[in-house]
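S.,

As promised, the N-oxalylglycine run. Input:
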Amino acid sequence: MEKLVSSWSKNKPLPESYIFPPETRPGNLIVPTCKTIPVIDLCNAEGRNRTDIVQQILKASQEYGFFQVVNHGISENLMNESMDVFNELFEMPDEDKVILYSEDPKKSCRLLTSSLNYDREKVHQWRDNLRHPCHPLQDCIKHWPQKPIRYREVVAALSIEAKKLGLRILELVSEGLGLESGYFGDKLSEALHLFVNHYPPCPDPSLTLGITKHCDPNLLTILHQGDVHGLQIFNNEEWIGVEPMPNAFVVNIGNQLQIISNNKLKSGEHRVVTNSRVARTTAAFFIAPSEDSIIEPAISLVGEASVYRAFEYKDFLLDYLSHMGNNEVVLGRFESQSLNNGKRTTHPKGP
Ligand code: OGA
Ligand code: NI
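Predicted complex:
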C-alpha cells in the first residue's frame, strides 16, 4: 500500500527508483502537435458512409495502428459519469484503497503500482492501476470495488458499451480485410479486461514514464483518455502525441490483430508520459481472445507465406509478460520460421 504513487507522492521529489536511463526517459522532448492520429467519424457507419469508414479504419490501422473515433454511439453522459467514478476511486482515502490493493496475482480485481513486475523491475512506472475482468459480467462484477458506491453500476454499463463498440469496429476491420462477417466475433473477442490507470502529478516528467513503450498484447483496445495529454505513439521513428478530444475513444490494434491480419495491420507502439500539473486518469478496455483460443493468420490473408505460426493465446501472454516492452522479440517468437530454427522449444519463465 505504501507503494501506491497516489498515496505517497504529494510534495515529494522523484525517487531514484522512478528515474529511467537516458535512452528511455522522455527528456524535455516536445512532441510535434502538427502530426496526429486520424479521427474517424462513425456516424452512419452502418449506412451510406460504410465503405469510406472501412477504408479510413484500414488505412489508420496500417499506418499507425491507432485512431480516434467520434460519434461512436456511447453517450457523453455515460463517458463523463465513468470518468467521475474513476477519479473518485483514486481520490478515496488510503483506508478505502487498501481494500483494493493486492500483490496476489491470483486476485482478479486489484489495485497495484507500476506493473505486475514491481518487485523485479529495475525502474518503476509512475502509475497506479486498477485492473479487473468485465466478462462474463455476472461472474466478475461481485469482485469489483464497492466504493465509490456507483462504481459497479456505471462501469458495468460502460463495459457493455465498450465491448459493443469494439465488436462494431472489428466488424468494419474484417470487412476491410476481406474476411467474412463475424470473423472476430465469438472466441477471438470473448474476453474483456479493464485497466484504470492513474498518473498523479509528477515532480519531474522528463525523467520518468507513466508506462514504458509497449504494444498491447490483445486484439483491440478501446481507451477513454479523458482530457489530459500523456499518450504518445511511436511512428516512423518519432513520438507523436495523441490529442485528447472530448467524447472520443482512442482505438488501437493489439498484437493479435496484427498476427491474424498477417502483418497487414500493425499494433502501434505507445507510451505514457507524465506531467507536473494535474493527475491523469484513463480507462483502457482490452478486448482479447479467450486464453485457449488458437491464433493464426487468416487463411485468405496468408498469400505466399504465413508470417506467424499457430499458437494458443495463453502462450503468447506468457512470452509477452517475460519480454515486456520488447515487441519485436515477442512477435519474433511466434513467427513461422522460429518453429524450425529451434529457438523456441520450452515455455519461458512465467510472469
Ligand atoms: C495501457 C495504455 C494508455 C493511457 O494501459 O496499455 O497504453 O493513456 N494506456 O493510459
Ligand atoms: Ni497500452
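Confidence is low (pLDDT under 50) at residues 340-351. The pocket of nickel (II) ion (ligand 2) is lined by residues 214, 216, 270 (CB under 6 Å).

- D.
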